[in-house]
Amino acid sequence: MHYTAEYRDKLCTPEQAVQVVKNGDWVDYTTSLGKPVLLDRALAKRRDELTDVKIRGNLLSGPIEVAECDPTQEHFTYHSWHCSSYERKLCDRGLCYFIPMVFHHNSAYYKHFLTVNVAMVSVTPMDKHGYFNLSTATGVAAQILRTADIVILEINEHLPKLYGGYDECIHISEVDYIVEGEHDPLPEVPFIAPTVTDEQIAANIIPYLRDGMTLQLGIGSLPHAVGNLIAQSDLRDFGMHTELCSDAYLQLYKAGKLTNTYKTINRGKGVLGVAIGSHEMYEWIDENPGIAAYPLSYVNDPEVIGRIDNMLSINSCLEIDLYGQVSSESSGIRQISGTGGQLDFLTGASTSRGGKAFICMSSTYQDKHGVRHSRIVPRFGGDIITSPRSQVYYVATEYGVVNLLGKSTWERAEVIISLAHPDFREALCAAAEAQHIWRRSNRR
User: Fold this and answer.
1) d(C-alpha 87, C-alpha 94), whole Å
2) Coil, helix or strand for 90?
3) Omega of the bond prior to 14 within 30 degrees of 0, cis?
4) pLDDT tens readout for residues 402-419
Protein backbone atom coordinates (compact mmCIF):
# COMPACT_ATOMS: atom_id res chain seq x y z
CA MET A 1 0.00 0.00 0.00
CA HIS A 2 2.92 2.32 0.72
CA TYR A 3 4.25 1.90 -2.81
CA THR A 4 0.79 2.20 -4.32
CA ALA A 5 0.27 5.56 -2.62
CA GLU A 6 3.74 6.79 -3.61
CA TYR A 7 3.14 5.66 -7.17
CA ARG A 8 -0.13 7.59 -7.28
CA ASP A 9 1.56 10.71 -5.90
CA LYS A 10 4.26 10.63 -8.61
CA LEU A 11 1.94 9.73 -11.50
CA CYS A 12 1.27 12.53 -14.00
CA THR A 13 0.67 13.07 -17.69
CA PRO A 14 3.60 13.28 -20.12
CA GLU A 15 2.74 16.93 -20.70
CA GLN A 16 2.97 17.65 -16.97
CA ALA A 17 6.22 15.74 -16.53
CA VAL A 18 8.15 17.56 -19.29
CA GLN A 19 7.44 20.90 -17.67
CA VAL A 20 10.56 20.28 -15.57
CA VAL A 21 12.78 20.75 -18.65
CA LYS A 22 14.37 24.23 -18.74
CA ASN A 23 16.32 26.25 -21.30
CA GLY A 24 19.87 24.93 -21.67
CA ASP A 25 19.17 21.57 -20.02
CA TRP A 26 20.79 18.26 -20.91
CA VAL A 27 18.12 15.55 -21.27
CA ASP A 28 18.93 11.85 -21.64
CA TYR A 29 16.76 9.24 -23.41
CA THR A 30 19.13 6.30 -22.62
CA THR A 31 19.13 3.59 -25.33
CA SER A 32 17.19 1.35 -27.73
CA LEU A 33 13.81 0.26 -26.31
CA GLY A 34 14.37 2.62 -23.37
CA LYS A 35 13.34 5.49 -25.64
CA PRO A 36 10.55 7.46 -23.85
CA VAL A 37 8.11 7.72 -26.75
CA LEU A 38 5.31 9.59 -24.96
CA LEU A 39 7.66 11.97 -23.18
CA ASP A 40 9.57 12.70 -26.40
CA ARG A 41 6.30 13.60 -28.09
CA ALA A 42 5.24 15.84 -25.21
CA LEU A 43 8.63 17.58 -25.05
CA ALA A 44 8.53 18.30 -28.78
CA LYS A 45 5.24 20.14 -28.24
CA ARG A 46 7.09 22.57 -25.98
CA ARG A 47 9.45 23.54 -28.81
CA ASP A 48 8.53 27.21 -28.97
CA GLU A 49 8.84 27.62 -25.19
CA LEU A 50 12.41 26.30 -24.98
CA THR A 51 15.87 27.10 -26.35
CA ASP A 52 19.15 25.17 -26.42
CA VAL A 53 17.89 21.93 -24.90
CA LYS A 54 20.38 19.13 -25.62
CA ILE A 55 19.23 15.50 -25.81
CA ARG A 56 21.36 12.34 -25.74
CA GLY A 57 20.44 8.82 -26.79
CA ASN A 58 21.73 5.95 -28.86
CA LEU A 59 20.42 3.11 -31.00
CA LEU A 60 16.99 4.77 -30.99
CA SER A 61 14.36 4.00 -33.60
CA GLY A 62 12.47 6.82 -35.27
CA PRO A 63 10.93 9.19 -35.17
CA ILE A 64 12.67 11.21 -32.47
CA GLU A 65 10.17 14.04 -32.28
CA VAL A 66 12.46 16.63 -30.68
CA ALA A 67 14.86 16.28 -33.63
CA GLU A 68 12.19 16.14 -36.33
CA CYS A 69 10.27 19.19 -35.07
CA ASP A 70 13.21 21.60 -35.03
CA PRO A 71 15.35 21.60 -38.20
CA THR A 72 17.00 24.90 -37.15
CA GLN A 73 18.10 23.34 -33.82
CA GLU A 74 17.37 26.58 -32.04
CA HIS A 75 15.24 24.72 -29.50
CA PHE A 76 16.49 21.11 -29.46
CA THR A 77 19.80 19.50 -30.44
CA TYR A 78 20.04 15.72 -30.55
CA HIS A 79 23.18 13.63 -29.92
CA SER A 80 23.93 9.90 -30.21
CA TRP A 81 26.89 7.85 -29.01
CA HIS A 82 26.03 4.92 -31.29
CA CYS A 83 23.86 5.49 -34.35
CA SER A 84 20.95 3.30 -35.34
CA SER A 85 20.03 3.32 -39.03
CA TYR A 86 17.50 6.06 -38.23
CA GLU A 87 19.99 8.18 -36.27
CA ARG A 88 22.46 7.79 -39.15
CA LYS A 89 19.90 9.43 -41.41
CA LEU A 90 19.48 12.22 -38.86
CA CYS A 91 23.25 12.75 -39.03
CA ASP A 92 23.02 12.92 -42.82
CA ARG A 93 20.41 15.68 -42.42
CA GLY A 94 22.53 17.58 -39.90
CA LEU A 95 20.06 16.80 -37.09
CA CYS A 96 22.26 14.55 -34.95
CA TYR A 97 25.78 14.91 -33.55
CA PHE A 98 27.92 11.92 -32.66
CA ILE A 99 29.55 11.44 -29.23
CA PRO A 100 32.65 9.20 -29.42
CA MET A 101 32.47 6.62 -26.63
CA VAL A 102 34.02 3.24 -25.89
CA PHE A 103 31.15 1.31 -24.35
CA HIS A 104 32.82 -0.02 -21.21
CA HIS A 105 33.51 3.60 -20.19
CA ASN A 106 29.83 4.53 -20.50
CA SER A 107 29.04 4.56 -16.77
CA ALA A 108 32.27 6.37 -15.92
CA TYR A 109 31.56 9.11 -18.48
CA TYR A 110 28.20 9.79 -16.87
CA LYS A 111 29.50 9.49 -13.31
CA HIS A 112 32.50 11.77 -13.68
CA PHE A 113 32.11 14.04 -16.70
CA LEU A 114 28.57 14.46 -18.04
CA THR A 115 25.64 16.57 -16.86
CA VAL A 116 22.14 15.10 -16.89
CA ASN A 117 19.48 17.58 -15.79
CA VAL A 118 16.56 15.31 -16.72
CA ALA A 119 16.63 11.57 -17.48
CA MET A 120 13.67 9.92 -19.21
CA VAL A 121 13.48 6.17 -19.77
CA SER A 122 10.85 3.57 -20.58
CA VAL A 123 10.56 0.76 -18.03
CA THR A 124 8.31 -2.18 -17.18
CA PRO A 125 5.39 -1.73 -14.74
CA MET A 126 6.28 -1.55 -11.02
CA ASP A 127 6.43 -4.82 -9.10
CA LYS A 128 5.07 -5.43 -5.61
CA HIS A 129 8.40 -4.41 -4.06
CA GLY A 130 8.36 -0.96 -5.70
CA TYR A 131 10.91 -1.73 -8.43
CA PHE A 132 10.77 -0.92 -12.13
CA ASN A 133 12.82 -3.08 -14.51
CA LEU A 134 15.14 -1.24 -16.92
CA SER A 135 14.68 -4.00 -19.49
CA THR A 136 16.88 -3.74 -22.59
CA ALA A 137 18.29 -0.39 -21.40
CA THR A 138 20.02 -2.12 -18.45
CA GLY A 139 23.39 -1.80 -20.17
CA VAL A 140 23.46 1.97 -19.75
CA ALA A 141 20.48 3.31 -17.82
CA ALA A 142 21.30 2.97 -14.11
CA GLN A 143 24.25 5.36 -13.98
CA ILE A 144 22.42 7.89 -16.16
CA LEU A 145 19.52 7.83 -13.69
CA ARG A 146 21.88 8.18 -10.70
CA THR A 147 23.54 11.18 -12.32
CA ALA A 148 20.29 12.93 -13.25
CA ASP A 149 18.86 15.80 -11.22
CA ILE A 150 15.33 14.67 -12.14
CA VAL A 151 14.22 11.13 -13.10
CA ILE A 152 11.06 10.48 -15.13
CA LEU A 153 9.90 6.93 -15.87
CA GLU A 154 7.58 6.03 -18.73
CA ILE A 155 5.72 2.75 -18.25
CA ASN A 156 5.79 0.69 -21.43
CA GLU A 157 3.49 -2.29 -21.16
CA HIS A 158 5.29 -4.18 -23.95
CA LEU A 159 8.84 -4.24 -22.58
CA PRO A 160 10.42 -7.57 -21.62
CA LYS A 161 11.46 -7.91 -17.99
CA LEU A 162 15.09 -8.98 -17.71
CA TYR A 163 16.69 -10.65 -14.75
CA GLY A 164 20.07 -9.16 -14.03
CA GLY A 165 23.34 -9.24 -12.23
CA TYR A 166 22.97 -5.70 -10.88
CA ASP A 167 21.62 -2.28 -11.89
CA GLU A 168 18.71 -3.82 -13.82
CA CYS A 169 16.08 -2.04 -11.68
CA ILE A 170 15.26 1.33 -10.14
CA HIS A 171 13.17 1.76 -6.99
CA ILE A 172 10.24 4.15 -6.81
CA SER A 173 11.98 6.06 -4.01
CA GLU A 174 14.61 7.15 -6.60
CA VAL A 175 12.00 8.44 -9.07
CA ASP A 176 10.51 11.91 -9.38
CA TYR A 177 7.72 11.42 -11.92
CA ILE A 178 5.92 8.49 -13.57
CA VAL A 179 3.86 8.58 -16.77
CA GLU A 180 1.60 5.99 -18.34
CA GLY A 181 -0.07 5.58 -21.72
CA GLU A 182 -0.62 3.22 -24.61
CA HIS A 183 2.33 2.26 -26.77
CA ASP A 184 2.69 0.73 -30.20
CA PRO A 185 4.29 -2.72 -30.35
CA LEU A 186 8.05 -2.65 -29.79
CA PRO A 187 10.09 -1.74 -32.88
CA GLU A 188 11.81 -4.68 -34.51
CA VAL A 189 15.12 -4.82 -36.33
CA PRO A 190 14.29 -6.63 -39.56
CA PHE A 191 16.12 -9.87 -40.27
CA ILE A 192 18.86 -9.29 -42.84
CA ALA A 193 19.33 -12.42 -44.89
CA PRO A 194 23.01 -13.42 -45.19
CA THR A 195 24.57 -12.85 -48.59
CA VAL A 196 26.67 -15.44 -50.36
CA THR A 197 29.72 -13.44 -49.27
CA ASP A 198 28.54 -13.46 -45.64
CA GLU A 199 28.21 -17.23 -45.81
CA GLN A 200 31.71 -17.55 -47.29
CA ILE A 201 33.18 -15.40 -44.50
CA ALA A 202 31.29 -17.41 -41.87
CA ALA A 203 32.57 -20.64 -43.41
CA ASN A 204 36.13 -19.31 -43.12
CA ILE A 205 35.62 -18.60 -39.40
CA ILE A 206 33.94 -21.88 -38.46
CA PRO A 207 37.21 -23.93 -38.39
CA TYR A 208 38.43 -21.69 -35.55
CA LEU A 209 35.44 -22.60 -33.36
CA ARG A 210 35.18 -25.46 -30.90
CA ASP A 211 32.68 -26.76 -28.38
CA GLY A 212 32.05 -24.65 -25.29
CA MET A 213 33.20 -21.27 -26.64
CA THR A 214 31.50 -18.09 -25.44
CA LEU A 215 30.31 -15.83 -28.25
CA GLN A 216 30.05 -12.10 -28.78
CA LEU A 217 28.23 -11.40 -32.03
CA GLY A 218 27.18 -8.08 -33.45
CA ILE A 219 23.96 -7.39 -35.33
CA GLY A 220 23.42 -7.83 -39.05
CA SER A 221 23.63 -10.43 -41.77
CA LEU A 222 27.11 -11.78 -40.93
CA PRO A 223 26.25 -12.80 -37.32
CA HIS A 224 23.17 -14.53 -38.69
CA ALA A 225 25.36 -16.37 -41.17
CA VAL A 226 27.67 -17.50 -38.36
CA GLY A 227 24.66 -18.52 -36.29
CA ASN A 228 23.25 -20.50 -39.22
CA LEU A 229 26.45 -22.45 -39.73
CA ILE A 230 26.87 -23.20 -36.02
CA ALA A 231 23.24 -24.34 -35.85
CA GLN A 232 23.85 -26.73 -38.74
CA SER A 233 27.19 -27.99 -37.43
CA ASP A 234 28.14 -30.61 -34.86
CA LEU A 235 29.46 -27.88 -32.52
CA ARG A 236 27.66 -27.48 -29.19
CA ASP A 237 27.43 -25.89 -25.74
CA PHE A 238 28.13 -22.29 -26.67
CA GLY A 239 27.83 -19.44 -24.21
CA MET A 240 26.70 -15.82 -24.65
CA HIS A 241 28.51 -12.74 -23.36
CA THR A 242 27.61 -9.79 -25.55
CA GLU A 243 26.93 -6.08 -25.36
CA LEU A 244 24.06 -6.49 -27.83
CA CYS A 245 21.80 -9.53 -28.00
CA SER A 246 20.24 -10.15 -31.41
CA ASP A 247 18.25 -12.90 -33.10
CA ALA A 248 21.50 -14.70 -33.89
CA TYR A 249 21.52 -15.96 -30.29
CA LEU A 250 17.87 -16.99 -30.44
CA GLN A 251 18.74 -18.96 -33.55
CA LEU A 252 21.48 -20.79 -31.64
CA TYR A 253 19.20 -21.41 -28.66
CA LYS A 254 16.46 -22.90 -30.83
CA ALA A 255 19.02 -25.26 -32.39
CA GLY A 256 20.07 -26.44 -28.91
CA LYS A 257 23.55 -24.94 -29.30
CA LEU A 258 23.36 -22.17 -26.68
CA THR A 259 23.60 -23.69 -23.20
CA ASN A 260 26.10 -21.47 -21.31
CA THR A 261 27.25 -24.68 -19.61
CA TYR A 262 30.99 -24.19 -19.80
CA LYS A 263 31.35 -20.46 -19.15
CA THR A 264 34.08 -19.74 -16.63
CA ILE A 265 32.11 -16.79 -15.19
CA ASN A 266 28.32 -16.36 -15.06
CA ARG A 267 28.00 -20.10 -15.69
CA GLY A 268 24.54 -21.02 -16.92
CA LYS A 269 23.68 -17.42 -17.82
CA GLY A 270 23.68 -15.70 -21.18
CA VAL A 271 24.97 -12.20 -20.42
CA LEU A 272 23.86 -9.10 -22.33
CA GLY A 273 23.76 -5.33 -21.97
CA VAL A 274 21.28 -4.28 -24.67
CA ALA A 275 18.91 -6.28 -26.88
CA ILE A 276 17.51 -5.38 -30.29
CA GLY A 277 15.72 -7.78 -32.60
CA SER A 278 12.41 -9.47 -33.31
CA HIS A 279 9.31 -9.82 -31.15
CA GLU A 280 10.17 -13.50 -30.84
CA MET A 281 13.56 -12.58 -29.42
CA TYR A 282 11.96 -10.17 -26.92
CA GLU A 283 9.65 -12.97 -25.81
CA TRP A 284 12.66 -15.27 -25.38
CA ILE A 285 14.54 -12.92 -23.03
CA ASP A 286 11.43 -11.92 -21.05
CA GLU A 287 11.70 -13.28 -17.47
CA ASN A 288 14.16 -15.90 -18.69
CA PRO A 289 16.29 -17.22 -15.78
CA GLY A 290 18.94 -18.21 -18.31
CA ILE A 291 19.50 -14.58 -19.32
CA ALA A 292 21.26 -11.97 -17.15
CA ALA A 293 21.43 -8.26 -18.03
CA TYR A 294 24.37 -6.23 -16.73
CA PRO A 295 25.68 -2.68 -17.20
CA LEU A 296 28.16 -2.29 -20.06
CA SER A 297 30.77 -1.30 -17.47
CA TYR A 298 30.73 -5.03 -16.61
CA VAL A 299 29.77 -6.69 -19.90
CA ASN A 300 32.36 -4.77 -21.92
CA ASP A 301 35.12 -4.55 -19.34
CA PRO A 302 38.18 -6.09 -21.06
CA GLU A 303 39.33 -7.54 -17.73
CA VAL A 304 35.97 -9.33 -17.30
CA ILE A 305 36.02 -10.54 -20.92
CA GLY A 306 39.57 -11.81 -20.45
CA ARG A 307 38.42 -14.00 -17.53
CA ILE A 308 36.13 -15.95 -19.87
CA ASP A 309 38.03 -18.91 -21.30
CA ASN A 310 37.60 -19.51 -25.04
CA MET A 311 35.98 -16.14 -25.68
CA LEU A 312 35.16 -15.63 -29.37
CA SER A 313 34.42 -12.09 -30.57
CA ILE A 314 33.11 -11.43 -34.08
CA ASN A 315 32.68 -7.84 -35.26
CA SER A 316 32.40 -6.15 -38.64
CA CYS A 317 34.22 -3.23 -40.17
CA LEU A 318 33.94 -0.99 -43.22
CA GLU A 319 37.60 -0.81 -44.26
CA ILE A 320 41.10 -1.83 -43.19
CA ASP A 321 44.40 -0.43 -44.40
CA LEU A 322 47.68 -2.21 -45.05
CA TYR A 323 48.95 -1.29 -41.59
CA GLY A 324 46.04 -3.11 -39.94
CA GLN A 325 44.12 -0.02 -38.85
CA VAL A 326 40.36 -0.57 -38.85
CA SER A 327 37.56 1.84 -39.70
CA SER A 328 34.20 0.52 -38.49
CA GLU A 329 32.02 3.51 -37.66
CA SER A 330 32.19 6.02 -40.50
CA SER A 331 32.53 6.20 -44.24
CA GLY A 332 34.76 9.20 -44.79
CA ILE A 333 33.10 11.93 -42.72
CA ARG A 334 29.70 10.20 -42.77
CA GLN A 335 28.84 8.69 -39.39
CA ILE A 336 27.53 5.14 -39.77
CA SER A 337 27.37 3.67 -36.27
CA GLY A 338 29.86 4.08 -33.41
CA THR A 339 32.87 2.63 -31.65
CA GLY A 340 30.57 0.56 -29.47
CA GLY A 341 32.29 -2.43 -27.90
CA GLN A 342 34.59 -3.42 -30.75
CA LEU A 343 37.74 -2.22 -29.03
CA ASP A 344 36.57 -3.65 -25.68
CA PHE A 345 36.12 -7.14 -27.11
CA LEU A 346 39.28 -6.99 -29.23
CA THR A 347 41.23 -6.27 -26.06
CA GLY A 348 39.38 -8.72 -23.82
CA ALA A 349 39.18 -11.69 -26.19
CA SER A 350 42.88 -11.44 -27.02
CA THR A 351 43.72 -11.98 -23.33
CA SER A 352 41.19 -14.79 -22.84
CA ARG A 353 42.71 -18.27 -22.47
CA GLY A 354 41.88 -19.84 -25.82
CA GLY A 355 40.15 -16.64 -26.96
CA LYS A 356 40.03 -15.16 -30.44
CA ALA A 357 38.80 -11.81 -31.82
CA PHE A 358 37.75 -11.47 -35.46
CA ILE A 359 37.22 -8.35 -37.56
CA CYS A 360 35.18 -9.29 -40.64
CA MET A 361 34.23 -7.63 -43.91
CA SER A 362 33.52 -8.35 -47.54
CA SER A 363 36.57 -7.63 -49.68
CA THR A 364 34.68 -5.15 -51.90
CA TYR A 365 31.58 -2.98 -52.02
CA GLN A 366 29.67 -1.18 -54.76
CA ASP A 367 28.91 2.52 -54.58
CA LYS A 368 25.58 4.04 -55.63
CA HIS A 369 26.81 4.21 -59.23
CA GLY A 370 27.57 0.50 -59.31
CA VAL A 371 31.35 0.98 -59.21
CA ARG A 372 33.21 -1.67 -57.21
CA HIS A 373 35.76 -0.59 -54.58
CA SER A 374 38.15 -2.49 -52.35
CA ARG A 375 37.52 -2.43 -48.60
CA ILE A 376 41.26 -2.98 -48.19
CA VAL A 377 42.98 0.36 -48.84
CA PRO A 378 46.67 1.33 -48.91
CA ARG A 379 46.37 3.77 -45.99
CA PHE A 380 43.82 5.98 -44.36
CA GLY A 381 44.08 9.68 -45.00
CA GLY A 382 41.95 11.44 -42.41
CA ASP A 383 39.42 8.64 -41.96
CA ILE A 384 38.16 7.91 -38.46
CA ILE A 385 39.98 4.93 -36.95
CA THR A 386 37.96 2.68 -34.67
CA SER A 387 40.54 0.04 -33.75
CA PRO A 388 44.30 0.70 -33.78
CA ARG A 389 46.66 -1.64 -35.57
CA SER A 390 48.25 -2.65 -32.26
CA GLN A 391 45.04 -4.33 -31.11
CA VAL A 392 43.66 -5.95 -34.27
CA TYR A 393 43.81 -9.75 -34.07
CA TYR A 394 42.21 -11.97 -36.73
CA VAL A 395 40.87 -10.42 -39.94
CA ALA A 396 38.48 -12.31 -42.23
CA THR A 397 37.03 -11.80 -45.71
CA GLU A 398 35.56 -14.26 -48.19
CA TYR A 399 39.17 -14.97 -49.27
CA GLY A 400 40.36 -16.28 -45.92
CA VAL A 401 41.48 -15.46 -42.38
CA VAL A 402 44.80 -13.98 -41.21
CA ASN A 403 46.26 -13.27 -37.78
CA LEU A 404 48.04 -9.91 -37.42
CA LEU A 405 49.40 -10.34 -33.90
CA GLY A 406 53.18 -10.03 -33.78
CA LYS A 407 53.54 -9.30 -37.49
CA SER A 408 55.76 -6.52 -38.79
CA THR A 409 54.56 -3.91 -41.27
CA TRP A 410 55.68 -5.87 -44.35
CA GLU A 411 54.23 -9.12 -43.00
CA ARG A 412 50.94 -7.37 -42.31
CA ALA A 413 50.82 -5.90 -45.79
CA GLU A 414 51.43 -9.32 -47.29
CA VAL A 415 48.70 -11.18 -45.39
CA ILE A 416 46.16 -8.36 -45.60
CA ILE A 417 46.59 -8.18 -49.38
CA SER A 418 45.90 -11.93 -49.50
CA LEU A 419 42.39 -11.12 -48.23
CA ALA A 420 41.70 -8.59 -51.00
CA HIS A 421 39.74 -9.24 -54.16
CA PRO A 422 42.19 -10.47 -56.83
CA ASP A 423 41.37 -7.50 -59.08
CA PHE A 424 42.88 -5.10 -56.49
CA ARG A 425 45.93 -7.03 -55.31
CA GLU A 426 48.50 -5.73 -57.80
CA ALA A 427 47.61 -2.10 -57.03
CA LEU A 428 47.82 -2.81 -53.30
CA CYS A 429 51.25 -4.46 -53.74
CA ALA A 430 52.46 -1.35 -55.60
CA ALA A 431 51.07 0.90 -52.86
CA ALA A 432 52.78 -1.18 -50.16
CA GLU A 433 56.08 -0.87 -52.01
CA ALA A 434 55.66 2.91 -52.30
CA GLN A 435 54.91 3.05 -48.57
CA HIS A 436 58.11 1.08 -47.79
CA ILE A 437 56.24 -1.84 -46.25
CA TRP A 438 57.04 -4.33 -49.00
CA ARG A 439 59.99 -6.68 -49.42
CA ARG A 440 61.32 -8.01 -52.67
CA SER A 441 60.74 -11.51 -51.33
CA ASN A 442 57.03 -10.84 -50.84
CA ARG A 443 54.69 -12.85 -53.01
CA ARG A 444 52.80 -10.99 -55.69
Assistant:
1) 10
2) helix
3) no
4) 999 999 999 999 999 999
Answering whether pTM is above 0.85, one says yes
Burial 108-133 (b: 16+ CB within 10 A, else e): ebbeeebebbbbbbbbbebeeebbbb
**Residues designated as active site:** 243
CA gap 314, 177 in Å, rounded: 41
Segment 123-148 mean pLDDT: 97
Q: What CA–CA distance (Å, rounded) separates 35 from 24?
A: 21
Q: What is the dihedral of CA 55, 56, 60, 62, to 10 degrees?
A: 20
Listed range (88-97, 110-119, 257-266, 381-390) with the worst mean pLDDT: 381-390
Whether the Cβ atoms of residue 442 and residue 410 lie closer than 8 Å to each other: yes
For residues 311 and 308, give the distance between their C-alpha atoms in angstroms, rounded to a whole number: 6
Helices (H) and strands (E) in the chain, counts: 16, 24
Residue 179 carries which side chain, given as an amino acid letter?
V
CB 58 within 8 A of CB 81: yes
Which residue, among 443, 349, 364, 441, has the nearest Cα to 403 in the 3D structure? 349
